[in-house]
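Saturday, quiet lab. Running sequence design on the structure tokens for the scaffold JK sent over.
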């Protein structure tokens, strides 16, 4: 016999409460609590499905010495493509639960289907709650890879999915998406916090008990968090995020959590007519080749995770047309831009308070590395004074509140990347010179410690 119970869940963060409350004590959001009915099942009446073939009378685990634990039986599953391999930390770990998040239309289903099609020696079950079998077939034809080991299942009930899993016994399961699935053990509608959490928990148990890796696609809300909840993020082993501007072709794949690898890694893809293609030389693509140097453009040697990358920062400064000056930024934090403008005004005496300032990072990517500061500031001044920066110059330094040029991490890698791409000069912080063997580089290294020094070196 089962008894029913209802609880209120915050739709924003997944917090739970016995009664309705207006203001969530956990995330601070207002009016986010929704009643969800949960059917409490008796202990043994569920989820025997995927264990039924194996020994169900599993005894309690016993402790073992760490040194005796062997890894030979758990080799990672090699995935096609360097980018995904790197972001996953070297392949798929058996029994891992991976959450793959991103905004609608960014290309999550495409990337997962591509993975399923390319893993030819593995039996894969692609569960879709969003698209029909025909739609998936059309997409597969568009991608242009054929395989005979990928099963498609259009189903949203987890119990039915487990039934199919028991029949097919796949070696990898892909769920598109977790928000469309529902379990009969919870009464609320698909996509609600309790459904999402319960479905994910079922697949977590499945992954761990059968050692089958599971990829779950999850949609992201407007605010940028995974819809239905943060609760998923700590349940899963790995959280991958697919980012980018839908209007641009570049997509960035990042691991924001990874129990089996480094979270600094990043992969870049390009969305083409025939699916996603890996970008192995991002720097060459993200910089525009111009005939003549234009004002307002500066190249920055940044790090995306462990990968050096040269990107183009563009600035446009013009007189404010409507009294209040506008500041707008694409691909860069607006608050940090305001801070840099204040530093320019206060420490260097540039009157930008009456100007509109627009910033854009070329290629539609988003940069968080503070090493981009100096390039940005130089691009702003270049536009303001209408003096172009030579195309052979790039920058790698942070700007502090006092106008000092601060050092950045992994300076050697940044300099090497700039040198590789044929730049002749790179501006860095003089604090970065310590321990740097300048003889290793052919590129001219200009070390500066104050913003004024950088400007006089650049514009004379
Ligand atoms: P999709 O994988 O459906 O996004 P998500 O699952 O994250 O919602 O991809 C959607 C977009 O990708 C769609 O607008 C069309 C585009 N696209 C291409 O440009 N080329 C392709 O080969 C494919 C399959 C999709
Ligand atoms: Mg999709």
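Result came back. Writing it out in full:
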């Amino acid at each position: 016999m089962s008894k029913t119970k209802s609880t209120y869940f915050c739709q924003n963060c997944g917090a739970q409460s016995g009664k309705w409350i207006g203001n969530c004590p956990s995330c601070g959001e207002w009016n986010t609590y929704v009643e969800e009915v949960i059917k409490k099942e008796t202990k043994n009446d569920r989820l025997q499905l995927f264990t039924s073939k194996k020994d169900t009378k599993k005894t309690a685990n016993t402790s073992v010495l760490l040194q005796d634990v062997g890894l030979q039986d758990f080799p990672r599953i090699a995935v096609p493509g360097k980018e995904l391999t790197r972001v996953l930390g070297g392949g798929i770990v058996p029994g891992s639960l991976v959450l793959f998040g991103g905004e609608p239309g960014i290309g999550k289903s495409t990337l997962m289907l591509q993975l399923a099609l390319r893993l030819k020696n593995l039996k894969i079950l692609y569960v879709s709650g969003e698209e029909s079998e025909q739609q998936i077939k059309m997409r597969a034809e568009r991608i242009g890879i054929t395989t005979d080991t990928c099963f498609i299942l259009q189903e949203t009930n987890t119990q039915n999915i487990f039934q199919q899993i028991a029949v097919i016994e796949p070696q990898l399961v892909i769920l598109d998406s977790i928000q469309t699935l529902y379990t009969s053990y919870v009464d609320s509608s698909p996509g609600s916090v309790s459904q999402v959490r319960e479905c994910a928990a079922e697949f977590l148990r499945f992954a761990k008990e059968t050692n089958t890796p599971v990829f779950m696609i999850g949609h992201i809300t407007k605010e940028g968090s995974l819809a239905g909840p943060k609760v998923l993020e700590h349940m899963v082993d790995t959280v991958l995020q697919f980012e980018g501007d839908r209007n641009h072709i570049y997509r960035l794949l990042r691991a924001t959590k990874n129990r089996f690898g480094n979270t600094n890694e990043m992969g870049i893809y390009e969305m083409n007519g025939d699916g996603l293609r890996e970008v192995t030389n991002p720097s060459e693509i993200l910089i525009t080749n111009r005939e003549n140097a234009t004002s307002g453009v500066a190249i920055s040697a940044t790090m995306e995770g462990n990968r050096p990358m040269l990107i183009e920062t563009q600035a446009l400064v013009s007189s404010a047309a409507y009294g209040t000056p506008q500041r707008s930024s694409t691909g860069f934090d607006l608050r940090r831009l305001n801070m840099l403008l204040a530093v320019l005004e206060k420490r260097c005496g540039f009157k930008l308070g009456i100007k509109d300032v627009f910033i854009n990072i070329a290629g539609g990517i988003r940069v968080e590395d503070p090493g981009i500061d100096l390039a940005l500031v130089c691009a702003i001044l270049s536009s303001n004074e209408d003096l172009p920066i030579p195309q052979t110059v790039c920058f790698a330094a942070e700007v502090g509140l006092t106008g000092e040029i601060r050092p950045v991490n992994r300076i050697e890698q940044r300099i090497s990347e700039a040198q590789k791409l044929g730049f002749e000069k790179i501006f860095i912080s003089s604090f970065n010179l310590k321990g740097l063997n300048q003889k290793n580089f052919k590129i001219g290294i200009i070390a500066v410690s104050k913003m004024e020094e950088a400007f006089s070196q650049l514009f004379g």
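Notes for JK: The longest strand covers residues 307-319. The chain has three domains: 4-39, 78-280, 284-459. Ask whether to fix the surface positions before the next round.
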